[in-house]
Amino acid sequence: MFTGIIEAVGTVRQLQRRSGDLRLGVETGRLGMQDVHLGDSIATQGICLTVVEYSATAFAADVSLETVAHSTIASWVLGKRVNLEKAMQPLSRFGGHLVSGHVDGVGEIMAMSHSARALNVSVRAPQELMRYIALKGSICVDGISLTVNGLQADAFDLTLVPHTMQQTAFGDWQTGVQVNLEVDIIARYLERLSATDRQTGMQKTSGLSSGMDRDFLAQHGFL
To answer: Do 48 and 62 touch, CB atoms closer than 8 A?
Structure first.
């Protein structure tokens, strides 16, 4: 799991096709690699990747066709800057929100405008993801944990403070650029629980009714 708080900005140094999928190599910049081991996870532009090779300044990961199909990675080029975050440790501060690194879809930057020292960004999202995006809720964009400050029928608005702009690869964003999106994991599970209850007439777990339906969610502020 991750928090969406970016630790470093890396650079893509290898994009190699291997039997149909992809081997990715990333130079890690300021990311400390002293505690990284084979098999560890590093979120790269919001994508959870498994380390298969590493050094003091870089790592490599294999990228499946599933990941290529559901993220922006197919459009990456050598030299692209990417946001990096190592997996969260149990004793570390929880600075962002629960992020799995499993990209749900690809969004598009619609507009960008300055507001004092901050930057307002509007992002178009696939319609099937908009149901999970809530005003003042959290969303992960290119691996960055951000707060939703506005909603439209097919888009949401963000505000990036100067620190976020300085510590991430946000500088590559411009109108028309595609970004990786991961919606709040809690919203996905709540919908699944609600859908299961409707389909089964109240699913039983260990002999007990789950009690999870749309009325329950509405009464407790989830809808």
So the answer is: no
